[in-house]
Amino acid sequence: MRVVYRCSRCGRQIAELHLPVLSEAALGLDALTPEERADIISFDAAAETVSLRSLCDRCVEGLEMDAPLAWRRVH
Ligand SMILES: [Zn+2]
What we know:
- The chain is α+β, with helices and mostly antiparallel strands.
- The protein has one domain (about 1-75).
- The chain has helices spanning about 25, 35-40, 55-65, 70-75, and strands at about 1-5, 15-20, 40-45, 50-55.
- The longest helix is centred in the last third of the chain and has 10 residues, at about 55-65.
- It binds zinc ion (ZN).
- This is Anti-sigma-F factor Fin family protein.
- Pfam families: Fin (PF10955).
């Protein structure tokens, strides 16, 4: 099973994993609500690929610059 993390903002592929079996717990997916799962996970059975929406480092930095008050709170 191929697991691909793709940035939902710029579309860049962030990471790719190959798992012998799909373990939702190992990916942290078992903690998601059904709505979050539907939003984040897309499953392509034909290609045996699971795509997960995420954010790449560059876009996370961009978001922090867009939200300087939130950024200052964290740091
Ligand atoms: Zn990105």
